[in-house]
Design brief:
With 126 residues, the chain is mostly helical. 46% of the residues lie in helices and 10% in strands.
Amino acid sequence: MLSLDRGWLESLHTFINEMKQKYTMELVYSLCKPRFNHEFALMKLNNKGYKMAVCSNSIRKTIEIDVKICFRNYFDFYISNEDVKQGKPSLEMYEKAITKLDFNPQCLIVKDNKRVSRLLGKVAPM
């Protein structure tokens, strides 16, 4: 994107990605702390047997660390941008999660940074 939008050299991509990950990890370790209300809600859902997954545009390594630090073992699995051809806002991650969880998409609630939404069967045909 930076090469297309701002004319950056493609030879800088690897360096930029490495630096971005370095600073992302520093922020994760320094700022990501479990919040009581989040952990309490996840614990309650987990104890009731709800299946939960993380779908993130982040790379796998970032998700692994973030989930380990902030969310313990409440999620059954996660899907990163490395696991799909198209990241969000494409629905591919959600389709993959629905398939893996063996869910009916009409019973699915998605919580993301911008909204809570019901996908109402838009994700995968059943």
